[in-house]
Each structure stands twice: as C-alpha cells, then as structure tokens.
Amino acid sequence: MTPLASEHAALVAAVAEKRDREAFTRLFDYFGPRLNAYLIRLGCDRASAEEITQDVMVSLWRKAHLFEPAKSSLATWLYRIARNRRIDILRRDRVDFVDPDDFALDVADESTVDAERLVDAQSRDDVLRGAMAGLPDEQLALVKLAFFESLSHSEIAEKTGLPLGTVKSRIRLAFTRLRRALEAGGVVEAE
C-alpha cells in the first residue's frame, strides 16, 4: 500500500470510527475535485458532476465503515461509486439509456478511457504493492536489485555475495509468488 493510500485508509477509519470531520474534510478536499473532473470526462455536465460528487462524498461519510482497504484503494472505491451513480442517474432520466459496458464496441472518448485506465492502473498497482510486501525479505531485495537497479543475475550475485544459482532460484520463487498474488487479485489471468 502506498503512503498516500495508507493515509487515506487511516482517514477513512477516523471517519468511520469517530465521525472525524477534519479527516472527512481532508478526504473531500483531495477526492472532490478529482471525482468531479472524472465525471466531466465521462460526459456529465458540471452541475451533474458536482451533484454526483457530493452524493459520493456523502456516501463516504455515511458508509465509511464499509470500506475495506484490503480489497481496493479508496480511490478505486470512490471512482466506482461515482461511475455507478452516473449510470443510475442516466438510467433513471432516460428510458432509452444503454450502458456502454453492455456492448463490445465502446464508443467512449479518449478521456473516458484514460480515466478508467487510471483507476485500473491504480488498482493493479495496489495489488502489486501488496504482493511485493508479501515476499520474504531475501526475495524482495533481489527483485528490487533486478528491476529497480536493472542488475543482471550475475551482477546481483556479485553484489550480494550469494551464489548465482541461489539468486536465480530466489528470483524465480519471487516471480511465482507475485504471479499467484496477481492472479488472485484479478490483475492477470491464470494460465
């Protein structure tokens, strides 16, 4: 979990447990403009976007106890609520509304796709960070050397003093664990 996601989870917990208005204000100040912009990119007019944003934030105030940081980030949870509220309003207001997700052909504009990709990417990042946090320290250290420092297996062996076979084995085990965690989190499909 990123430091920002951890901070958001703590603020939500304060809202849920103590009805902490300052914590809620900080969340509102952070997410309000982002949700509003997201809804506008989805095609809402400014007034509707503000109304839905207010509704989503009221839901956060009332239902903060339902947020589960182990399942998703707060951003993912709030964006999903906003998207669903928008669809509900469109369905209510227009009898002929068709949910674009019902069709394989998506005619959404690029900004809508970008916003949805951002939410999906954040969700994937949360799952990946959680998976990496679950690795044993000796495997995590080697994965970081391989990917964040771009060292080869031989260079890692030389730098750590470990036998080359041990380095390869630990990295292979780490990848297996990461793949399983990502599959469990719905980020990659099982083969």
Walk me through the structure.
The protein is mainly alpha-helical and 191 residues long. The protein folds into two domains: 3-110, RNA polymerase sigma factor, region 2, helix turn helix motif (Rna Polymerase Sigma Factor, Chain: A, Orthogonal Bundle); 134-191, Winged helix-like DNA-binding domain superfamily/Winged helix DNA-binding domain (Arc Repressor Mutant, subunit A), CATH 1.10.10. It contains eight helices and no strands. α2 (21-41) packs antiparallel against α3 (46-63), α6 (137-147) packs across α8 (164-184) and α7 packs across α8. The model is unreliable at 102-113 (pLDDT under 50).
Features:
Arc Repressor Mutant, subunit A, 191 residues, mainly alpha, Rna Polymerase Sigma Factor, Chain: A, 8 helices
Compact summary:
With 191 residues, this protein is an all-alpha fold.
As for the CATH topology of the largest domain, it is Rna Polymerase Sigma Factor, Chain: A
Q: Choose one word for the global shape.
A: elongated
The CATH superfamily of the largest domain is known as RNA polymerase sigma factor, region 2, helix turn helix motif
Helix content: over 70%
Count every helix, treating DSSP H or I runs of 4 or more residues as helices: 8
Low confidence ranges:
102-113
Structural class estimated from helices and strands: mainly alpha
Q: What distance lies between the first and last C-alpha atoms, to the nearest angstrom?
A: 27 Å
Report the top-level CATH class of the largest domain. Answer: Mainly Alpha
Q: If you average the pLDDT, what whole number results?
A: 81
The helix/strand order is HHHHHHHH
Biggest β-sheet strands, sense, barrel? none
Compute the number of structural domains.
2
Strand content bin: under 5%
